């Protein structure tokens, strides 16, 4: 197995246990540049691109190029190697949706000129590249639209809501709520998501269009904050900050298609996934003794 990563948001320590085996190689490379691979390649998961808003907004043009130039380079590699390829697309292609839950047929409401556009529009353009390579070059290309995902080994500095709240609660500092906290997300545990991605890659059903992968249970940001505070028995308070520009107000996947063609649905409830994540973060942040996970 070969992993290609420019380590802009990841770290080598996350795969140290794999590097100790002789079946895994990590190549430090930025996929906006083409890459030559001498080995045979059967399948490519294109997971490249920072997904956390504060991270992908650091260098928006690079973010856009990661999804567009990076996808094209990976599609060319798939074409050369006759490999199957799966694109990690996103629920952000739906923007700030006017309908809920969001089925794959919903075309989205995305602002092309806003702080999230570099990510959203890059991922939308990548879907089009996948569609065209499939049609014109007969590349076996698949697209997963991934909804909010969380779990152990997330970077404590990632900046997204679940890791922020867990870290803040563990350190006893205020939980930062953007806007009034009534906006919703549907949080999928990482193991469930990986199971869905692997099923989509393995599928022989001739699935050609995008497939939503996410947990259909929807929570407001305030509900999430309450759960984290209760589980960590933290004395942290809530601090309400200005709402973020173009922040989607609601998000919940319709996973009928994934259920039907992949036989997939998430099996980890948020309460259980949070327990595992809090335990991992407590250990990572060396404050195990301060925390009693419920
Ligand atoms: N959010 C928040 N406090 C934080 C981080 C995020 O209230 O410290 C909110 C954010 O405004 C959004 C939701 O939580 O409404 C999910 O944000 P995240 O960055 O995790 O993911 P995304 O917006 O990309 O779905």
UniProtKB/TrEMBL annotation:
Keywords: Decarboxylase, Glycoprotein, Golgi apparatus, Lyase, Membrane, NAD, Signal-anchor, Transmembrane, Transmembrane helix
Cofactor: NAD(+)
A cellular-component GO term for this protein: cytoplasm
Molecular-function annotations in GO: NAD+ binding; UDP-glucuronate decarboxylase activity
InterPro entries in the record: NAD(P)-bd_dom (IPR016040), NAD(P)-bd_dom_sf (IPR036291), UXS-like (IPR044516)
Subcellular localization: Golgi apparatus, Golgi stack membrane
Broad class of enzyme this protein falls into: lyase
Keyword Transmembrane part of the UniProt annotation: yes
Protein's membrane topology: Single-pass type II membrane protein
NAD(P)-binding domain boundaries: 8-277
Listed EC numbers: 4.1.1.35
SUPFAM superfamilies listed in its UniProt record: NAD(P)-binding Rossmann-fold domains
Pathway: Nucleotide-sugar biosynthesis; UDP-alpha-D-xylose biosynthesis; UDP-alpha-D-xylose from UDP-alpha-D-glucuronate: step 1/1
GO BP field: D-xylose metabolic process
Similarity field: Belongs to the NAD(P)-dependent epimerase/dehydratase family. UDP-glucuronic acid decarboxylase subfamily.
Protein name: UDP-glucuronate decarboxylase
UniProt organism field: Roseicyclus marinus
């Amino acid at each position: 197995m070969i992993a290609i990563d420019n380590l802009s948001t990841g770290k080598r320590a996350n795969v140290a246990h794999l590097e100790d085996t002789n079946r895994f190689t990590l190549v430090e490379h930025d996929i906006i540049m083409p890459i030559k691979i001498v080995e045979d390649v059967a399948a490519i998961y294109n997971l490249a691109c920072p997904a956390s808003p504060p991270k992908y907004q650091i260098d928006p043009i690079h973010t856009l190029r990661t999804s567009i130039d990076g996808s094209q380079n990976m599609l060319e590699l798939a074409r050369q190697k006759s490999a199957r390829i799966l694109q990690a697309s996103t629920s952000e292609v739906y923007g700030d949706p006017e309908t809920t839950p969001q089925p794959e047929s919903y075309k989205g409401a995305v602002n092309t000129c806003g702080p999230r556009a570099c990510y959203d529009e890059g991922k939308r353009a990548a879907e089009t590249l996948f569609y065209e390579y499939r049609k014109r070059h007969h590349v076996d290309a698949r697209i997963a639209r991934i909804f909010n995902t969380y779990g152990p080994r997330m970077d404590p500095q990632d900046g997204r809501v679940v890791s922020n709240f867990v870290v803040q609660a563990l350190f006893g500092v205020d939980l930062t709520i953007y806007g009034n906290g009534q906006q919703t997300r549907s949080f999928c545990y990482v193991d469930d998501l990986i199971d869905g991605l692997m099923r989509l890659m393995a599928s022989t059903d001739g699935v050609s269009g995008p497939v939503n992968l996410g947990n259909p249970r929807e929570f407001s940001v305030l509900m999430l904050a309450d759960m984290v505070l209760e589980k960590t028995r933290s004395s942290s308070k809530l601090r309400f900050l200005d709402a973020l520009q173009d922040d989607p107000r609601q998000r919940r996947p319709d996973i009928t298609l994934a259920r039907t063609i992949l036989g997939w649905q998430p099996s980890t409830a948020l309460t259980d996934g949070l327990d595992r994540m809090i335990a991992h973060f407590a250990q990572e942040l060396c404050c195990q003794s301060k925390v009693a996970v419920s």
